[in-house]
Amino acid sequence: MLPSSLLVARKHRDTIRPVYADFTAANQALAKQLIQAYHDHVTKRKRAVEAVIAALETQGREYRFVRGLAVLLDRRCRPDGPPQPPLPRRSASGHPRHPPRP
Question: Tens digits of per-residue pLDDT, 35-57?
Answer without folding.
Answer: 998 888 887 888 888 998 998 88
